[in-house]
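Morning. Coffee machine broken again, so started the prediction first thing and wrote up yesterday's gels while waiting. Chain of 274 residues, entered below exactly as on the submission form.
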Amino acid sequence: MSIEHSFAWNAHLELDYQWIKGRTVPVLRRHKGPLRVQKHLYPEGAEICQHILLHPPGGVAGGDMLNIKINAGPHTMVQLVNPGAGKWYRSDLPSYQNIKLRVESGATLEWLPQESIFFSGCQANLDTTVELAANAKFITWDIIALGRPASSELFNSGSVRQRFRLWCNGRLLWSERMQLFGGGQLLKSPIGLAGYPVAGTLIASGKISDHLLAVCRNLPVEGRGGITQLPGLIIVRFIGLEAEAARHWFTALWRQLRPALVGRSVHFPRIWST
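Came back before lunch.
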């Protein structure tokens, strides 16, 4: 066994929330290794429980495996954020992140992580599965930054593999796979990332009016972006030069979408300002 592999983390985090006497209450908080949450936060009142997901090592190294399982019970409202960008380091060994999210009847889950930075030479594998009840509500985004252009590091080796599947009421509503190879043609191709080092996707369940869709499409974006409304889903794509530009656009869209889809105005998590 290599020295690198012998120090790999196999981390697990499992959270379960239930609706108890008008309050979203965490009833299960199980963790192993360097994945955890701390204090339950209620910045918007008792209905919505906010948790900050912590990964103390600050980055994912070769051989690491992160497993996250979340269940939002009936009628709960859950918001999950993290304190900073995730980092995936150069390695000859693969690293993994597996996320399973379940949102039960009448529940709302917002999964709003900050960007993931993939260092050149990483071997990253990410798999996310979402299961929604027919009347559940879900909003998420994912921002990836390839290499570290500010440090003159391009993503010229390694790989990032992502899979995302969303089920609603037992029916597969959205499924996609992405494979990016360092220095590969897809990074430069006009049907790929067109030479941009940052890409992002926002997904929200539900339907919005044509007027609100037009408002969202007219929001300024520093990069290239597009918004599509499908049956039961809103899909947003971004490519650009800076992760900050993706965050600004996605949060501006969230400000518009959240009242329409969740019925609540936006309250920005305090951790985003620290």
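The two ends are 40 Å apart (CA to CA). Going to sketch it on the whiteboard this afternoon.
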